[in-house]
Specification:
The complex is a heterodimer. By secondary structure, chain A is an alpha/beta fold. Chain A folds into 2 domains: 9-226, P-loop containing nucleotide triphosphate hydrolases (Rossmann fold, 3-Layer(aba) Sandwich), CATH 3.40.50; 236-300, 2-Layer Sandwich (Alpha-Beta Plaits). Chain A contains 11 helices and 14 strands. The radius of gyration of chain A is 22 Å and the shape is globular. Chain B has a 4-stranded mixed beta sheet with strand order 2-1-3-4, sandwiched between helices. Chain B contains 14 helices and 4 strands. Chain B folds into 2 domains: 8-44 and 173-373, no CATH class; 51-152, abc type-2 transporter like domain (abc type-2 transporter like fold). Classes of the chains: A alpha/beta, B alpha/beta.
Chain lengths: 323, 374
């Protein structure tokens, strides 16, 4: 994550119109090499459109974009040589085996046989597909399909990989494993552009941006966004409850009066409680119900809170400007 | 690697694997044309024979029975019913049980004897024009022949004019000889247009096409990689159809089989390109199916496969110039039935090749735009 002079992606004032509808409206951002860039936003807000513009699938109606140093409008083919892309539904050939899928994508990128074999070995090493190499892609579980799709997208050693909702419909364990893999690869200097709905995934990104109906309304590191003055939660306190029995604790915690909201995050529960709530009281309440609590501590606002806050601010501004 | 065919070998490799994996689809698309050939080869006989005929013989004497024997021996009529009044004669035709009714009047023999000119009423069901035409021709010919025989019976004169028709190339007018070479053209569409259209539309449905568009693969590389494996299948199907035609239906091939194989390539190319063009338009496999059927109809009706192109109304005649099967049927019938050679058929092959190239270029352009606009 060392910012170099040339960014991986530089998008300046991107505009994309479909007829009268403006899907992407004056969007600018910059992704440095080696970052995991989380691109967030509700469905239909323009995430996929931006990816299509950056991969040269969709011409720009306005603005300028450079990907790995190539102008997407003028040199789409050079852009495509240097990027990998994994779409929402993994786009594998389910009637081909794992190794056939890899071989196909390797040949598409013009890898020589020797190089292809070497890269396949490396990919298999990294994502652990070894035991499944001769299995049909249709027989893989969701998590393995996703690993294979990622492998196919990375065979040609791209410097930048676009992942469009890579974890939609994948079980949490597989999601976690995928993120571990992304961290490992990003450590090797590969840049990732990830769209997601999952806020816990957004928290893991080194850089996030939030697009809301074609407009970019947040752009920065998760920590810098949390510290935005706009994001304050009046009258409530956000806490983290760490316990070995998360699922049971979650169900019980929701029954305790004063707990407004509770969700599992990894090995802990994030709960929103009234401002003056007694945290020791909560610990005893849970102990009465046979839940051993390791730790309860106050927590900074999550990205979800940040985005909800920013979205409603943005809506309010728009309504105000309309009047 | 700035090559407009980029990605061709990778797509070819993958497509061959798809075909091998999905063996049942391949099997059925190969076997169904063969079955169709069996059905059509055995069932369709354009030679009208044994028309169900009802007889009302009011005369009943020797002369009238002789006339009926001549009708019977013509092989055109099958005398299935004898009635005794006009009402029954009419009913037999109206009910559809008989297509032809012959009424010999009560004074038939008398009039012949007195040479005052006998008349025979022939009622013909006109609802099937080819049956009606055949019935008219044969009854008129029998009447004329019978008259001449009687007029010339007592003299030594012979016919002043005698036509001696000689049918070239299909002397027995066997229907399979006429139909099967044309049928080959229609059946090949099954494995070419349909399979290629499906193979690309399937990628659209799966989302893999979008994935391919993000790779450096070029439209021509993609399309040719898709097209060539199916060209191989089309060629295999062609050989099976020709073997069935030659050895099961006994249609002799008068010309060069090698030339036929060679001239089939441009036709397969057109049909495959058409499939690709369809796939650039279709959004689902069901949609592709509908579009592909639209292309099948002109291949059946405007290609000369069943109805001669020359007798079509002007508009459709000119329209038939745009139907690839019309050129290919000329090639298959030319080689199989007439023993035609390269000098007779090269222009048809060139037209087919140009059509195929045009369709493929249009399809590639559409895909290029799709890639950008998707």
């Amino acid at each position: 994550m060392t910012p170099s002079t040339q960014p991986s992606i530089s998008a300046q004032r991107l505009v994309r119109r479909f007829g009268k509808f403006t899907a992407v409206n004056d969007v600018s951002f910059r992704v440095e090499k080696g970052e995991i860039f989380g691109f967030l936003g509700p469905n239909g807000s323009g995430k996929t459109t931006v990816i299509k513009m950056l991969t040269g699938l969709l011409p720009l109606s306005g603005g300028h974009a450079e990907v790995e140093g190539f102008d997407v409008s003028k040199d789409a083919e050079a852009v495509r040589e240097n990027i990998g892309y994994m779409s929402q539904n993994f786009s594998l050939y389910t009637d081909l085996t794992v190794s056939e899928n890899l071989t196909f994508y390797g040949r598409i990128y013009g890898l020589s046989n020797d190089h292809l074999r070497k890269r396949m070995d490396e990919i298999i090493q990294i994502n652990g597909l070894g035991p499944y190499i001769h299995r049909l892609a249709s027989q893989l579980s969701g998590g393995w399909k996703q690993r294979l799709a990622l492998g196919c997208a990375m065979l040609h050693e791209p410097k930048l990989v676009f992942l469009d909702e890579p974890t939609a419909g994948i079980d949490p364990v597989a999601r976690r494993q995928l993120w571990d893999l992304l961290f490992e690869l990003s450590g090797q200097g590969i840049t990732f552009f990830v769209t997601t709905h999952y806020m816990d995934e957004a928290e893991r990104c080194s850089h996030v941006a939030y697009i809301y109906f074609g407009k970019l309304i947040a752009d920065g590191t998760p920590d810098s966004l949390r510290e935005l003055p706009d994001v304050q939660l009046a009258g409530t306190l956000r806490i983290e409850i760490t316990t070995p029995q998360v699922t049971r604790a979650l169900r019980l915690a929701r029954e305790i009066p004063g707990v407004r909201n509770a969700t599992i995050y990894g090995q802990s529960i994030h709960a929103l409680v009234d401002d003056h709530y007694d945290l020791n009281g909560l610990r005893e309440e849970l102990l009465k119900r046979n839940i051993v609590v390791a730790e309860i501590r106050p927590l900074a606002p999550s990205l979800e809170d940040v985005f909800v806050e920013l979205t409603s601010k943005h809506q309010a501004q728009q309504e105000a400007s309309r009047e | 690697m700035n090559n407009i065919f980029r990605g061709f070998s990778a797509v070819f490799y993958k497509e061959s694997l798809h075909i091998r994996r999905d063996f049942s689809t391949l099997f059925f698309s190969l076997i169904i044309p063969i079955l169709q050939m069996f059905l059509l080869g055995y069932a369709i006989d354009t030679n009208i024979r044994q028309i169900n005929t009802v007889i009302y013989n009011a005369d009943g004497r020797r002369e009238s029975r002789e006339l009926l024997d001549r009708l019977k021996n013509s092989d055109t009529f099958h005398l299935v019913r004898y009635v005794n009044n006009d009402q029954d004669l009419n009913d037999a035709i109206i009910s559809g049980k008989c297509r032809v009714g012959v009424k010999i009047p009560v004074d038939y023999s008398d009039r012949l004897l007195h040479q005052t000119g006998a008349q025979v009423l022939v009622l013909i069901d006109g609802s099937d024009s080819s049956v009606a035409g055949q019935a008219i021709n044969v009854t008129t010919a029998i009447g004329l022949d019978e008259s001449l025989r009687r007029v010339l019976a007592n003299s030594s004169a012979s016919f002043p004019v005698e036509m001696r028709p000689k049918i070239l190339f299909n002397p027995d007018s066997r229907s399979p000889n006429f139909f099967l070479p044309g049928l080959v053209a229609v059946l090949l569409l099954n494995v070419t247009t349909f399979l290629t259209a499906f193979s690309i539309v399937r990628e659209k449905e799966r989302g893999t096409l979008e994935q391919l568009f993000v790779t450096p693969v070029r439209p021509m590389g993609l399309l040719l990689g898709k097209l060539l494996p199916y060209l191989g299948i089309g060629f295999f199907e062609l050989s099976m159809l020709l073997v069935a035609m030659r050895f099961l239906f006994g249609v002799p091939i008068h010309g060069s089989v090698i030339l036929l194989a060679f001239l089939s390539l441009p036709y397969l190319f057109v049909s495959l390109s058409l499939g690709i063009l369809i796939s650039s338009k279709a959004t689902s496999q069901a949609n592709a199916m509908q579009l592909a059927f639209i292309t099948i109809l002109p291949s059946i009706f405007f290609s000369g496969y069943i109805f001669p192109r020359e007798t079509m109304p002007k508009f459709f005649y000119y329209l038939s110039y745009f139907v690839p099967a019309a050129y290919y049927i000329n090639i298959t019938r030319g080689i199989i039935l007439r023993g035609a050679g390269w000098i007779h058929l090269w222009s048809d092959a060139v037209v087919l090749f140009l059509m195929g190239a045009a369709l493929l270029i249009i399809a590639a352009r559409r895909f290029h735009n799709k890639i950008i606009m998707a």
